[in-house]
Every structure is written in C-alpha cells, then in structure tokens.
Design brief:
The structure holds two protein chains of two kinds.
Chain A lengths: L20 H10 L11 H28 L5 H27 L12 H5 L5 H30 L2 H28 L4 H17 L6 E2 L8 E2 L2 H7 L3 H11 L6
Parallel strand pairs in A: 1-2
Helix pairs in contact in A: 2-3, 2-5, 3-6, 5-6, 5-7, 5-8, 6-8
Chain B lengths: L10 H25 L6 H24 L15 H11 L7 H26 L6 H28 L3 H21 L25 H8 L9 H16 L2 H6 L8 H8 L5 E10 L2 E9 L4 E11 L2 E13 L9
Antiparallel strand pairs in B: 1-2, 2-3, 3-4
Helix pairs in contact in B: 1-2, 1-4, 2-5, 2-7, 3-6, 4-5, 4-6, 5-7
Classes of the chains: A mainly alpha, B alpha+beta.
C-alpha cells in the first residue's frame, strides 16, 4: 500500500465541488461578503455546519491515513488513532444529520482541502501536533461557539449534538499532546519542527483575524480559552495563540 | 469429568494462533484506515471508519492475551509467506473506482474466513482452562457477524450493474484462491463454513442502511428558475458542441476553449448535472457528460448580472474512461 499518499488522491463523489480555500475567500470578498461564514443568519449557520462536516470527513480520512502510514510508531499510538477514526466517522454522521436538520444538503457549499493537506505531514509527531492540537484546537473554538449560539437560538438538537462532538475533540487534543511528547522524547529537533508545523496551522486558521478572543456573538470564531485549558493547552500556549490572532495576515 | 479436561491446543499453539489472527486483523485495520481517503462513496467511507476501531480492539485483545500464554505482548505473525501474499493482494485495490474490490476483499473473503476460524477455534477451545481465549473469540465473532452484514448491505448498494457484480465475483474468486493456498490465516487449512444464521445482528453504530440513506443525493437542487433555464440551454449546447450557443452564456473574458477541447476529443451521448453548490451569490455547477469511450466532468461558476446568469468560470475537472479497469490479478 502506498504510504503516504499524495494530496490529490483524496476521493470524492461527484456531488462535491472542490476549490482552493484562498479562491473561495477571494470570491466572497469580491461579492462583498465575509470570507468566512459568521453565525448571524440561518444560511450562515448552515454554511458553517457544512464546513464542519467537510472538516470531519477530512479528519476521519486523515486519522485513517495515520493508522495506515505509521505502523512502526507503537501499538498504543495506533490504538489512539484508530479510536479517533471511529470518533470522526460518527462525527461525519452527526453533521450529515445536522445538515438535514438545517434544511441543507451535502455538497451545498464548495469543499476546501486545507485541513486534509495539514493531515498529510510525513512525520507522525508533526501530524499529531498539527491535526490533534492545531486543527482539533480550532474545532474546540468553533464547536464551543456553535453550542452557545445554538442554545441562544433555541435549537436543542444542534446544541446537544455539537456538545458531544466537542467532548470528543477535547479528548483528541489530549491525545495529541500526549503523543507529541512521547514521539519526540529525546529528540528536541523533531519536537521543535512538529510544534512549528502546529503553529503554522494555528496561524493559517486564524483566518486573517476571523478567529479572535472575544464574545461569541461579536466575534466570527471566538477562542475557547476554558475549553482549551480543559484540553490541556497551557496558559502560555493560549496566550501565544491570542497574540498571533492579532497580527494574522488576510487569509 | 476428565472429558471436560481434554483439549486440542497446547499453550504454544494457542499463542501462535493469537499472533496469526493478530497479523491478519492488524493489516486489515491499517488497510481500512488507509482506504477511507481513497474511497469516494460516503456509505463505504463510513463503513470503513466504523470498523477500523473494532479491528484495533480485536488486535489489542489478541495481543494482550499473548503474555498470558508465555509469549510477548502485541506481536503479529503471519503463518507463512502465502498468508503475506494473500494480505498483499487484499490491500492492492487502491484506485477510487475500486471500492467494490476493497469491500469484497474484506467483507466477502477475509471477514467470513475470520468468523469461521474464530468459531472453529471456539468450539475446540477447552471450556475449563481456556475461557480467556474463548471470551475474546466470542466478542470477535459478534463483531464479525455485524461487520459482514453491514459490508454486504453496502456491497449490494454499490454493485448496481452486471459488470460490477462480475468484477466483484472475479476478485472474490482470486482472493479465495490465495487464501485457500495459504491454508487460511493460521496456515492450518480452511475451517468448516458456518451455517447461515437468520437472526439479524444487533445494530450498534454501523447501520449500513442509514449510511446508504445519508449518501443519497438530494432529490432536487434548489436552482433559481431563471438559472434553471440557463443551465438547460447551456447543457444542451455542451452536448451538441454548439460553439455559438455556448458562447452566448459566457461572461465577457471567459473562453470556451477548455470545454471545447475536451468535448471535441470524445463521443459523448448523455449529460447530467451532478453537483450544485453555493458560493456567496454565485453558483457552482458540475456536469458529467458520458459516452461509450469517455466521461468528462465540466465545472462552471455562474454569476447573476444585468443580463441574467452567465458563466464566470469554465473548467474541465476530469476526463476518464467510463468503465474502470478490472483488478490487475
């Protein structure tokens, strides 16, 4: 079996339209729209949920590749990644049903593969740092806010389902922290590179200032500081993330 | 009373069987994990995603049993090179259009064999001094029955043409031949086939019928009326290769060249809209044109304007032969 696989081998049904994230953002800006869906209307909530669905699908595929690509990384590592595949596959199902619940359909918005590209790092330590800490950390921010907004809108289905997904994501961040440490034990250079990879991802997903510290209703993506603490991010890491969001370039 | 103490397996033999099972299960688990990204169909993706974790737990249980049998923990061991060859062949179909082969290998060949092997082992394992092994086997048997039923449901959904059914059969025979030559995953010969059971396995979280329902495309695209008419006319022009009619729908600066070049090279007899997505106020429309020799996917971005909907971007997303190649072996 080919290990690892090229970015462009990600397989999709015909109903999906794939675009580069930059192209999507530029096209929205040209149309005088925000580059990233806020949560101010039913339409924008549906678009956000659709984006999450696509992210969960790529997270499932990425975790699956990690199980496949690193047979020598240790059995306990494989077990954690296999568990994550199962979790992500249930998340895909949850978000497919939430899309139905919100009156949308899979393929209603273009798919960007930026998350999948991050999941293709060739080193296992970089992959867990980037995916489990960078991307799952982003998921904590997005889901925490969505739970809050769903509660305010009086949508208990959305609120409850996303709350359970958020609980899983916190577990995945913890797995990421554990494996970043274990896989790089005695190899500070490998650790440095993995953390650098994660920080690049954090920077990219600040989305040009879209992710910020602030109130759920006033910020497009609010940094979930409490949830991040629960997931095992240090105060220093949270502080650094907040600082980087204040100087992020336009996406 | 002494009859109850009669046994088929020594401790060493039992440990060897655990390692042999673990080898097949671990490799299958890693293959399933790797295939998720390579498999286009959502129902199959979800199926594979669900079963990776179950297989990991089976491998883990076999691996944890090993030290109790005077062996090293978490070790996988193929029974022979022929078992390795069988697993190599099982892993081989990686192309996006080979989902049927991937599922046939796992759900019609490997898993039914594992189920029969576990069952055969269970009935022969001594009930007095081998309950730890028996308990593991009972759990695996339950899971395998459920997996096979779910896999069969998805395969029934995917094998929609006689050609696909034929491909599935050919690949199954190929793998079964290799498995027989290997003497099964333990190398001890194939176990007796299990009698059919009528009871439906309990669904936990891998309801294949729901995966299929979730995969079903939307019944109707929410296409604005004016755009619907434009898409109809544009689609007809594509199929007819009518350059003038095609150009009428293009926004200033958009060239019809990519589509014209792609369409000019092939005989295409049918067209269908396969994707319809929103990009702000604009719409992304994907068509699939098919003919006896080729299939072409055209992607277009439509923007509303003073003259109505016009194509703001036109691209050929994919050109491929309509019938995927048979597996190599």
């Amino acid at each position: 079996m080919e290990r690892p696989i090229a970015y462009d081998k990600l397989a999709r049904e015909d109903r999906w339209v794939r675009m580069r994230a930059r192209e999507v953002a530029e096209s929205k800006i040209e149309q005088a729209l925000p580059p990233f869906p806020d949560l101010s209307t039913q339409d924008s909530i549906r678009e956000r949920v659709h984006g999450i669905l696509v992210g969960e699908m790529q997270a499932m595929e990425g975790a699956g590749r990690t199980v496949c690509d690193f047979p020598d990384a240790g059995w306990e590592f494989t077990m954690d990644m296999a568990r994550q595949v199962w979790d992500e596959s249930r998340h895909v199902e949850i978000y497919l049903r939430l899309i139905e619940h919100l009156g949308g359909y899979p393929g209603e918005f273009p798919e960007t593969t930026i998350l999948w590209r991050c999941a293709c790092a060739e080193d296992a330590a970089a992959r867990v740092a980037g995916v489990n800490r960078g991307l799952e950390g982003l998921a904590c921010d997005v889901f925490n806010q969505l739970v809050h907004i769903a509660g305010k809108l009086g949508d208990p289905i959305l609120e409850r389902a996303v709350e359970f997904v958020l609980a899983d994501e916190i577990t995945h961040v913890r797995m990421g922290s554990k494996w970043l440490t274990k896989l790089t034990e005695g190899d500070p250079e490998r650790r440095r590179k993995a953390i650098e990879f994660q920080e690049n991802i954090d920077e990219r997903f600040n989305l040009g200032g879209v992710r910020r510290e602030g109130d759920h209703e006033t910020v497009s993506i609010s940094i979930a500081t409490d949830v991040r603490r629960m997931a095992g991010f240090t105060e220093e890491e949270i502080e650094r993330l907040i600082k980087t969001t204040q100087r992020s370039q336009v996406y | 009373m002494t009859r109850l103490l009669a046994g088929h397996f020594s401790v060493d033999h039992s440990a060897r069987l655990m390692r042999n099972y673990r080898y097949a299960v671990e490799r299958a688990m890693r293959a399933l994990g790797g295939w998720i990204a390579l498999t286009p169909e959502l129902s199959a993706k979800l199926l594979l995603g669900r079963h990776v974790w179950d297989l990991a737990q089976h491998a883990d249980a076999f691996g944890k049993r090993l030290p109790e049998l005077r062996a090293h923990a978490q070790v996988s061991e193929p029974a022979s090179d022929r078992v390795v060859a069988f697993m190599d062949a099982l892993e081989e179909p990686e192309a996006p259009q080979q989902t049927v082969e991937r599922l046939v290998g796992v759900y019609r060949v490997l898993k039914p064999h594992l189920l029969a092997s576990y069952h055969d082992h269970l009935v022969r394992a001594n009930p007095v001094y081998e309950p730890p092994t028996r308990r593991i086997l009972v759990g695996c048997i339950d899971d395998e029955r459920r997996h096979i039923a779910a896999g069969e449901t998805i395969l029934g959904h995917l094998c929609v043409t006689p050609a696909l059914t034929e491909r599935a059969g050919a690949w199954q025979r190929r793998l079964e031949g290799l498995l027989t030559a290997a003497g099964g995953v333990t190398g001890d010969g194939l176990p007796p086939a299990l009698p059919e059971r009528n009871d439906v396995p309990v669904e936990t979280s891998d309801d294949a019928r729901e995966f299929i329902r979730l995969e079903t495309p939307t019944a109707s695209w929410p296409i604005p009326e004016e755009l619907r008419a434009a898409l109809g006319a544009f689609g007809d022009s594509l199929l007819a290769r009518d350059r003038e009619a095609l150009a009428r729908w293009l926004a200033p600066g958009v060239l019809p060249d990519p589509a014209r070049e792609a369409l000019g090279a092939a005989t295409l007899t049918s067209l269908r809209l396969v994707a319809f997505a929103r990009l702000g106020h604009q719409r992304l429309v994907k068509w699939r044109l098919e003919g006896p020799d080729a299939s072409v996917t055209i992607l277009s971005r439509w923007a509303p304007g003073p003259e109505g909907w016009r194509v703001a971007m036109l691209d050929v997303a994919r050109i491929e032969a309509p019938h995927p190649a048979l597996p190599r072996r």
